[in-house]
Protein 1
Amino acid sequence: MDGVHDMGGMDGFGAVEPEPNEPAFHAPWEGRVLAMQRAMGYAGAWQIDMSRFAQERLPPQVYLGVSYYQRWALAMEKNVVERGYAQADELAAGHALRPGRTLPRKLAPEAVAGLTRGSFYRQAQAPARFKPGDRVRARNIHPPTHTRLPRYARGRVGVVELVHGCHAFPDTVAIDKGDDPQWLYTVAFDGRELWGPDADPTLKVSIDAFEPYLEPA
Amino acid sequence: MIVCTLCSCYPWEMLGLPPVWYKSAPYRSRAVKDPRGVLADFGVKLPKDTRIRVWDSTAETRFLVLPMRPPGTERWSEERLASLVTRDSMIGTGLAKRPEEVA
């Protein structure tokens, strides 16, 4: 969806402000939100693309107005309610009011140390359409649902640099339509192709693009 | 330079939790369009002809920068070289430390 989350190239957000000696968390609740998110991921309650899509569906003023972990918490609440694990009145009450949907599995303390990042590789359904060196155009698509093709690349021509194998496709995963495995490529664009003749001539920007995002150029 | 314009993808397993600035709108919006401006916010100025490559982490592949080896470290051991490497030098918003900074 064409939301505020897709912010590559937007102006007006001001300077980047590094914080010296930044702590891991700025308040204890942030760590709890991170822990809850990991636990729900382990539980199989939803997948990471569903978390991202829930954040993207927050109203723009909310998305931009809250902190990173607040955004996570709001997206988690959305998924909890939409997927029937609890209802809004239970979130407000702070405890269960009725039996909710059962989690596929639960994270036990002894499993925490062994938590690893899941793999997104999937069995290829067809040979890769592109190879390194191919010129490709990012399609001018505007799906109203989740996509990982940033707006600034759409319609632009780049060159395939890497083939990463076949991966679960976020666009379908996010809307409960399954993995629909797709080939994944690193595609590099000249800065001037993206930002016009005044762009930094030394700049090259790459995205990781799933095959349905691309067409031959 | 590594960024995630769409959310805040970051190589957690290698670099730990991302700093707040990495997840902020200023960084996510500007890194792909004005990376020299972003570098200036970090106090880093590169020669005009230094080529800049930005990797937008739009899928589940995670990237980090292999920092450039600073001059004057030719016979350094792996361990000593590692002492020059900073988190920001692996995100691409900073250079590795100079030898005199760790001496």
Protein 2
Amino acid sequence: MDSISDFGAILLMQGFNGLSNFCVLLLMALGLAIIFGQMGVINMAHGEFLTIGAYTTYVLSEICQRYAPWLSDSYFVLAVVVSFFIAGAVGLVVEHLMIRKLYTRPLDTLLATWGLSLIMQQVFRSIFGAREVSAVLPAWLMGSVQPLPGVDIPINGLLVMGLCLVLTSVIFFGLYRSRWGVRVRATTQNRVMSRATGIDTAHVDRLSFALGCGLAGIAGAAFTTIGSTGPTSGTLYIVDTFLVVVFGGAQSLLGGIASSFSIAQAQATMEFFLSGSTAKVLTLSAVILILMLRPQGLFSIRARS
Amino acid sequence: MRMKSPRLVTVFALVALAGCSSSEASATSVSAATSSTAEKAPPPPEAAPSGPRALAVTEKEVTVGQLHSATGTMAISETGSIQAERLAIEQINAQGGILGRKINIIQEDGASDWPTFAEKSKKLLVSDRTAAVFGCWTSASRKAVLPVFEKEQGLLYYPTFYEGLEQSKNVFYTGQEATQQILAGLDWLQKEKKAKTFFLIGSDYIWPRTSNKIARKHIENVLKGQVVGEEYYPLGHTQFGSLINKIKLKKPDAVYAIIVGGSNVSFYKQLKAAGVTAQNQTLLTISVTEDELLGIGGENMVGFYAAMKYFQSLKNENNVAFVKAFKEKYGPNAVIGDVTQAAYLGPWLYKAAVEKAGSFDIDKVVAASSDIELKTAPEGYVKVHPNHHLWSKLRIGQARLDGQFDVLYESELIEPNPFPKGYQ
């Protein structure tokens, strides 16, 4: 193999790497885009909902190993679905006990959910132990495909991409093309007026929060293929997640997509030509600079105030 | 109700995020009543406490401290050390204690927070008047408690392999310092794997950077090899695609990896998914023990090498007994990594030093510690060097599917050299 085609192969893989990073960021941010972007709840415990998804996958993998080894090739699909419902259910409970009392005090949600995240981390630690665990993933998930000689495309990257594509379209359709979406957007724009028009805002809030948490659960399940499963794994993602949502313009889903794309591509390109830490510093600096010039983020909804 | 100022909210969110990495500050004080079976002769008269800080030593008991993170991000690593130290102390008590005195433990939680470590060490030394403390894991926590130990004349047994460049009268380092862990491993790569080109990677903080600096000097000046890349990623980084592509582009004979924490798991999973395995790439790490391998998953690292002084799979009889006792106490699935074993040495070395000195007095214990030998160590024979580090061997292990390592190579005893000339 000569060095030029070699370099071409690396370039191709690096392109895919940028795209795959983009999907990881977007998948993390989808749930928060609803909870923070639409509902205005600064959910610092979002990372822990991700962890719930990861632990759900781990538990299912253990159960499969023990009781149903014939399922071990396909349990992962089940894990994604179950993660959604478990994280969503926990979200429902949290909303009922805590969040619903705080809709009128958005800044207080920050403290309350931060406390919640600490509690959840310690609960994970008490149940699963402080050490990291690893779900046994189906062999077909952990390999790579070779479309061209020398080009390895990781299958887990493809999986994250696929999930991301499906979920983004579903959320996009839900928010902008369905009655539920209209109600959600109406509620977040003016809660009093929405109630006056007959929308059950408490119901809308409850479902939206649970949906956001469920999406985090799915992301957590998917990330067991690329990352760690431990009590504090969620905290690895929370900063980037908020970054994407804030940078994109909190209330715009399109903004979230644009911002995760630009952050991921900038990061991947700079990582390749510079070093990892430098790339991170430069990416964050650029984000700060742009937020100084455009505090509302990349995209914002024009509204009379 | 809409938020009045999205900008304000953004600022608050980011401030809170910055605080996210620090962790919960709950601290528990557990006074463990350790089991006793043997009844031993009355204490010798010479053992009365002396010196500036009166020690909590009575006719029947000696009180020691244990200072690790039981909560927060570091709990993942420090749990093993806590368990090993407790096991050692329990075994010593079962044999009759030290100089006829039972060891009583006061455990404090550093909570993964360095100022908390300093505060708790002060409590252990000043209020509890502990005779020795077994504790700390990260260099940051050790640096935080060091001034306290030196001012209050405490005695610390520190278990982690670390970057070196430190030697204190009040600390004994039971893990390896950097040159012990690095040089022999690189020599092995050159000799056995014919490695001439190296790619150095690490998490971006003091230990990986100092270690890689030593590795680079050794590769360039001694092995006459070439470093084709050196890369650092922030702690907690989860996307290693670009790094993996760079490794593929540079095609090094060996990758030398010092990545820690959750990043470790991401790195090896993504390496495997990108088709880089032991079949086509030699990789040696000094940051993956059996503890970490549990989270990474054996299938994601099988065939890669780790350089440590201890592996759980060592066959010598000391280790077989140690592993058995550890599993009896902490369950059949418990794993023992390098640092856990080093932590286990702490109480035994302390016992040997006190008995040699015939006194619990800190100055006398420190003076007696030099050249103490421990023939019962799970890692084999160890000896305390006058520079407070241990003579120890280096071993190369190859990761197995089941999360253990096959030991392929064992060096001679290596002299600790925390201030290596020509490597700084």
